[in-house]
């Protein structure tokens, strides 16, 4: 199978979830296959192997009748602010330009804090890739090299089907300035784009499969001694078939991309991949303090202390699971003065009073004032967290009453305020909530034409097309 690539990029780590306009790529209702110029939907998909083995659920093919088109708005090159091109900034590149003496640019895919992403064709082997091209600022070049080191380390340890494939790093020079270009496989829409505005009601099995694949990715990363530090829906992408990669690369439509995904049925087969290791942290090795995670998915100890450990990721995973099931963020966050304290208060209102005791050893001096005289944040009558979670899961009939009860008991394990009590990825995978429902008669509901889900602008995306679509 030919290698594909799509880079993920570091975004505003505090607030991109709340300001999707920076990198939104989705649009209104999907066009029918005829209007997209696709004569026939893809009927097969492929999955790269991994040292973890394959799942019992891994398919050999995706029936064409189950694959549906998702219409995603393309990122606009004009959306890159002019100040991003200033001295030590990103290179000014045009579609059709050759970069690095090796890559022909085909489509602009997005931008973030320190890089732009381009769908390119590698002139050496003819494969499609995407380059995450950094600013020339030495600090940002160093960040790119650091991310490359993490990806190479994981490759040495063995690849995994739920981790984005890394293809390497190359140095390019534009107008006398040096930039680093990270190369990744091509991935499709991210989880935010599918969840935020998609009108399709997913079968519970689809939701559970999404959760299991995320947990498998995190289990693998943690086994390798890496804390991801930025797990969120925008960094979790869907694999797509080779036909879709080719379509995105060759399409003359600069307003939308069309991706065909199997997400609408009880036995749907798809693959999710975790990407963007730009602020990852390796345990047992001296690292520069990474940037903080996106606030919406940030664990309390990440705010209150200087400590870093695996439970930080598990809190973020819990927030993603909550969004997968409810399509809402557990705790929204507005970036403003004093917002860390406000964010902790929101946590306490949902999950109960936050004690100081678990954080005493590593607490930040400026955070001690957050706690009241009794060493709690918002100490008072504890909320009915179980009911809050059950109500959220059943609000739009995403889960039935039984599944909602199990979901609440499952997801609350990710939100233990004491990090030492938080569930691990390995243990979470054993939970009965993730057992699939054999009832395949669940009614599939859409607000528009059956089989024509729409995906509208959502949270910041750091990814674009991907290489293959399969199941876990």
TrEMBL record:
<feature type="compositionally biased region" description="Low complexity">
    <location>
        <begin position="26"/>
        <end position="35"/>
    </location>
</feature>
<feature type="domain" description="Protein kinase">
    <location>
        <begin position="103"/>
        <end position="434"/>
    </location>
</feature>
<protein>
    <submittedName>
        <fullName>Protein kinase domain-containing protein</fullName>
    </submittedName>
</protein>
<feature type="region of interest" description="Disordered">
    <location>
        <begin position="444"/>
        <end position="472"/>
    </location>
</feature>
<keyword id="KW-0808">Transferase</keyword>
<feature type="region of interest" description="Disordered">
    <location>
        <begin position="1"/>
        <end position="65"/>
    </location>
</feature>
<comment type="similarity">
    <text>Belongs to the protein kinase superfamily. CMGC Ser/Thr protein kinase family. Lammer subfamily.</text>
</comment>
<dbReference type="InterPro" id="IPR051175">
    <property type="entry name" value="CLK_kinases"/>
</dbReference>
<feature type="compositionally biased region" description="Basic and acidic residues">
    <location>
        <begin position="16"/>
        <end position="25"/>
    </location>
</feature>
<dbReference type="InterPro" id="IPR000719">
    <property type="entry name" value="Prot_kinase_dom"/>
</dbReference>
<keyword id="KW-0418">Kinase</keyword>
<keyword id="KW-0723">Serine/threonine-protein kinase</keyword>
<feature type="compositionally biased region" description="Polar residues">
    <location>
        <begin position="459"/>
        <end position="472"/>
    </location>
</feature>
<dbReference type="Pfam" id="PF00069">
    <property type="entry name" value="Pkinase"/>
</dbReference>
<feature type="compositionally biased region" description="Polar residues">
    <location>
        <begin position="37"/>
        <end position="65"/>
    </location>
</feature>
<keyword id="KW-0547">Nucleotide-binding</keyword>
<dbReference type="GO" id="GO:0004674">
    <property type="term" value="F:protein serine/threonine kinase activity"/>
</dbReference>
<dbReference type="GO" id="GO:0005524">
    <property type="term" value="F:ATP binding"/>
</dbReference>
<dbReference type="InterPro" id="IPR008271">
    <property type="entry name" value="Ser/Thr_kinase_AS"/>
</dbReference>
<keyword id="KW-0067">ATP-binding</keyword>
<dbReference type="InterPro" id="IPR011009">
    <property type="entry name" value="Kinase-like_dom_sf"/>
</dbReference>
């Amino acid at each position: 199978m030919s290698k594909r690539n799509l880079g993920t990029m570091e975004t505003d780590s505090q607030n991109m979830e709340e300001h999707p306009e920076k990198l939104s790529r989705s649009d209104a209702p999907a066009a029918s296959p005829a209007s997209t110029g696709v004569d026939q939907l893809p009927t097969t998909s492929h999955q790269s192997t991994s040292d973890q083995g394959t799942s019992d659920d891994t398919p050999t093919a995706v029936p064409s009748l189950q694959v549906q088109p998702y219409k995603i708005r393309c990122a606009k090159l004009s959306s890159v602010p002019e100040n991003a091109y200033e001295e030590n900034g990103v290179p000014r590149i045009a579609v059709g330009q050759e970069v690095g003496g090796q890559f022909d640019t085909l489509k602009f895919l997005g931008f973030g804090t320190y890089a732009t992403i381009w769908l390119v064709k590698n002139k050496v082997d003819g494969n499609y890739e995407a380059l995450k091209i950094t600013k020339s600022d030495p600090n940002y070049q160093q960040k790119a090299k650091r991310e490359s080191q993490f990806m190479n380390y994981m490759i040495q340890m063995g690849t995994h089907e739920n981790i984005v494939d890394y293809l390497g790093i190359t140095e390019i020079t534009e107008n006398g300035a040096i930039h680093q270009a990270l190369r990744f496989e091509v991935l499709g829409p991210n989880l935010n784009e599918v969840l935020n505005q998609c009108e399709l009601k997913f079968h519970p099995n689809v939701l559970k499969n999404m959760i299991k694949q995320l947990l498998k990715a995190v289990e693998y990363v943690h086994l390798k001694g890496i804390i991801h530090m930025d797990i969120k829906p925008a960094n979790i992408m869907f694999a797509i078939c080779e036909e879709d990669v080719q379509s995105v690369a060759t399409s003359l439509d600069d307003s939308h991309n069309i991706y065909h995904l199997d997400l609408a049925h009880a036995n749907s087969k798809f693959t999710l991949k975790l990407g963007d290791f730009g602020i990852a942290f390796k345990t047992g090795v001296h690292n520069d303090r990474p940037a903080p995670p996106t606030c919406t998915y940030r664990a309390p100890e990440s705010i209150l202390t200087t400590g870093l450990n695996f439970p930080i990721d598990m809190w973020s995973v819990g927030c993603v699971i909550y969004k997968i099931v409810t399509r809402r963020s557990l705790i929204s966050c507005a970036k403003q003065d004093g917002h860390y304290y406000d964010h902790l208060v929101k946590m306490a209102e949902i999950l109960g009073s936050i004690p100081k005791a678990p954080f005493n050893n590593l607490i930040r001096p400026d955070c001690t004032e957050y706690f009241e005289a009794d060493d709690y944040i918002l100490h008072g009558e504890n909320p009915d967290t179980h009911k809050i979670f059950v109500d959220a899961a059943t609000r739009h009939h995403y889960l039935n009453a039984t599944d909602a009860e199990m979901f609440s008991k499952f997801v609350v394990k990710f939100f233990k305020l004491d990090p030492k009590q938080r569930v691990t990825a390995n243990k979470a995978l054993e939970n009965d909530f993730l057992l699939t429902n054999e009832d395949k008669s669940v009614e599939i509901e859409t607000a528009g034409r059956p089989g024509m889900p729409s995906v509208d602008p959502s949270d910041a995306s750091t990814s674009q097309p991907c290489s293959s679509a399969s199941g876990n």
